Amino acid sequence: MLEVLDNLPHDLVYSPDQVSPWMEVWIEKVNGSSQVCEVYKPLQDPLVSRCSEIVGMNEENPSLREKLSFAAKGLVSKVFPKPRRAWLPTGCLKLLDTLHQTLPSMSLIASDFSYLPDVSIPGDRAPLVSSKKDGKTLDHPNYLDAQVCHFHFIHIAVTLQADNLFLLLE
């Protein structure tokens, strides 16, 4: 079950500096070629917005200390802008929402890994993107470099039949 949760889709969000609002990252083809690039758009996906609230990226009622910290970050970001990237586990959130709607009294126990290898892709909760060739694993420094894998979406359907739960991954 944990491997399923870990490998569900994540959404990437981006901010050009420490104080600008988060934006969704969309992948688009470059003028009909096989190359792709990132395009930044304002947050519009309700699942991405909700997930960013859950992980605490958009604090609604900041304390005085947080307000002072935010003001200091604003000054620093003008002099030393530092882009931010974060990967949000939106696929996991959608699955947990579906399970809760289908089985509201269900209990779930989950555990995280105690150790993961270093990740070279920048961003909070960044994925480890790798491919295998001739039995050797190659870690990629950029998720767009892994062109061996085509981008695809996983659709999750949950069906409840005769007290049994079936998950169908398409």
From TrEMBL:
Subcellular localization(s) per the UniProt record: Mitochondrion
Lineage top rank: taxon: Eukaryota
EC number: 2.1.1.320
Principal location class: mitochondrion
Entry keywords, A to Z: Methyltransferase, Mitochondrion, Transferase
Gene Ontology biological process terms, A to Z: methylation
Gene Ontology annotations for the cellular component aspect, listed alphabetically: mitochondrion
A single MF term (Gene Ontology): protein-arginine omega-N symmetric methyltransferase activity
Statement: the UniProt record of this protein carries the keyword Transferase: yes
Ranges in coiled-coil conformation: none
Annotated InterPro entries: NDUFAF7
Reaction(s) catalysed (UniProt annotation): L-arginyl-[protein] + 2 S-adenosyl-L-methionine = N(omega),N(omega)'-dimethyl-L-arginyl-[protein] + 2 S-adenosyl-L-homocysteine + 2 H(+)
Family per record: Belongs to the NDUFAF7 family.
Function of the protein: Arginine methyltransferase involved in the assembly or stability of mitochondrial NADH:ubiquinone oxidoreductase complex (complex I).
Protein's name in the database: Protein arginine methyltransferase NDUFAF7
Organism of derivation: Aegilops tauschii subsp. strangulata
